[in-house]
Fold this sequence. Notes:
This protein is mainly α. The protein is built from 16 helices and 3 strands. A 3-stranded mixed β-sheet has the order 1-2-3, sandwiched between helices.
Amino acid sequence: xxxxxxxxxxxxxxxxxxxxxxxxxxxxxxxxxxxxxxxxxxxxxxxxxxxxxxxxxxxxxxxxxxxxxxxxxxxxxxxxxxxxxxxxxxxxxxxxxxxxxxxxxxxxxxxxxxxxxxxxxxxxxxxxxxxxxxxxxxxxxxxxxxxxxxxxxxxxxxxxxxxxxxxxxxxxxxxxxxxxxxxxxxxxxxxxxxxxxxxxxxxxxxxxxxxxxxxxxxxxxxxxxxxxxxxxxxxxxxxxxxxxxxxxxxxxxxxxxxxxxxxxxxxxxxxxxxxxxxxxxxxxxxxxxxxxxxxxxxxxxxxxxxxxxxxxxxxxxxxxxxxxxxxxxxxxxxxx
Length: 336
């Protein structure tokens, strides 16, 4: 979500300007591009300009795909340059709306945490977990930061482990346990003269760095391409050779669900679905200098859509509509 390149290696103002120009050229991707531009402005120290970009997004006539994410980012940014009251008001609004996306919960909770509002941060992490994970057998990959952040804050508060803390421990794959990584006394070891304590801290930092790199290596989901019925009909009418790839729309939908379940059972995390359109696919093919009839182009198109933030998480959250667009609840449709 946020650029992580050190300031000495990139001109964040120039990168923000480039992203804004790109957003003007590709309005369908403006939301993701302007969020990235705002992050660059924050890294450049121009927080008022970043807030202006968030305001621009929130004022968009066509609406946003992730309005609560933008609100959460705006709140975190505002608090950093002295607008605490406004930031708190936005945070309360996000919490009251109870979004079904974990990212806004994590951002507002971490904003509270970074300003030493640990009790409020713990309550926010817990509220998010309650909204997203109650009666969920396997927490989706995107909810892991919610559980890890909650574990961290509760450890700082000295609270006893509960079921969600235990779940966070089981999801954490680093060789150093969460309890050790989140030990509030760790800071003292950095000033220790004891070689053993310093060596232990180096091991913990390496483990944290490994976890961070693993997360960065999968910044967007492994996505499977979905064609709505009308788009698939248009695609096959224009490129009949693709009928071997898509014998029927019903089979196409069944193949998507089957592929995702196979990926999940093999241990692949962070799965998603992207929906294609014929015009955007043709534009992508032209940019690659290939014919849209080439089947090898289809997975590349799916990856590009996922990188643009177009992926919908799979499996859908409990009680939400099926990814196929039938209007039925996932558990009563392809989730049966």
